[in-house]
Condensation domain-containing protein
Amino acid sequence: MGTEEAVPVVRSGPLVGAQEFEWWKLRHGIGTNVVSHVVPEAGTTRRMARRLLHEAVDPFESLRTSFGLDEEGRPRQHVHPVREFEVLERDAGEVTAEELIAELTHTEFTVEGRTLTRVGMVVDGPYVRCVVLSVSHAVIDGRGAQVLRQRLNSVFAGRGTKLTTAEAAPHPVDSALSEHSGPLSRMRSASLRFWEKEIERMPNRLFAPARGGVIERYHSEYESFAAHPALVLTGRRFQTSPAVVYTSTIVALAALISGSPTTTVRTHFAGRTPEENNTVGCYHQILPLTIDTSDRPSLGRIIERVRSQSFRVQRRYRVSHLTYREMRARAERARGASFAEGITVNFDYEVPLNQLTSQDSVLAAELESAGERELLMGAGESGADLTGLDAYLMFRLRSETLHGFGTFNSLSMSTEQMRGLLAGPEQLLRRLLSEGDVAWEAMRAMFGERVCGTGRADLGRRGVDVFSFGESVAALERHPDVAGAVLRVTEDAGHSVLVAHVETRTSRLTPEELRAHMLRQLSPAHPVVCPDRFVITVVATAGPVPHRT
């Protein structure tokens, strides 16, 4: 799965930032592409377009990078020399720029490929109408795409200054080497210590699907003209960013819906030092924010806690995906519970500066006069659930409008709860701005029992961990020597303890064997936990023990 030997390598290094996660997705055929395009000035020929394209992208090592594996099977990135692009040309009389963009967006890269960059052009005779650049997400993130697009536009407009590879540094390989053995290594060590402790606080999941291993996707689109002033005004009041404010409302709603004493949502962090801010590469991290909600805090208190925790996580983002997964796997075996993906928030904030500098009175007037929001929801396809997804919420704030896109597992929450996560943030912020704060009970009253219910009767809680009695018993009874089982949650020295009362028709069954069996049943997609204790009772039998499947 490495780079072809025929392609020379300038230098190599480990992966950095989000590269390991995106590499893993690419390896499993679920990678995504980041596409940029530029419209050249009239009269730009193919040769001129190629020259300008090379001038724009050649300084960035990530755009001539491929992946391979080292002797221990860990991924590495290989930087190749500058070479001519293979250009996919489409005639302007047959294909529009939008159609070429769509084609390259959906043309997948492979982890074995010797390039993770593709170029397409819409041509009209000797001239070029549009240049499209498709790059695997494994080597570029949102910030990197902004830098690349600015460079493309300036070069093709004749405003670009000469830029060498050395001047474009640091590159992702530089960052990776610094992180593993250079100046950033101390930051990485501190990050590892931080995440070892954070994983201990995290609940295994906030919700449990009615049927494990299956996802029934519910898709949504949301648009609001009031969200911009509400987010900015609240951010100013609490001296934080609109992204933190929005994430805080999702934390509050997730806590209200789930009833969990500790609430975790995953969100995106830039993952860059100031020196890396203008690097074209993939640095962003999707990391969990874990917030204590056991004291039923007000919305204002939740915003303060999310703000503080966001600062802590942002300082400790130097942890690779594979290392984090290894730490989490150790915790799963120790706790006897697998972590589900849960709720992920992706907030992209690009409001013009003149909007950010508006006076509070102007923003308040915009909030008051904003038109009605739009909410569209509909059932999507069903499929196998491998990660334990509850919701993925993508929100983009553009000019004066918030555009939201959501994917839910409708087996984990009701339609009313999905609507609450989509439209609830704006409702909460309007209430906070008008009243100063919103108490926990007031938030519950706003959304009612249909959203903030007490949960399903078949679910149990062991400390912060949630599990299904039925699925956990079924997992126990899949052991060939188990004839029947009952689970009970008890209290011992202030801690929740899950006890399994197991019936067997053989005296050879041991607690150690049952624990090993249950650990093999753990999965993010199934709300199964391993009991803390096993009470084994041998029962009389007149025949062989039935094999439970």
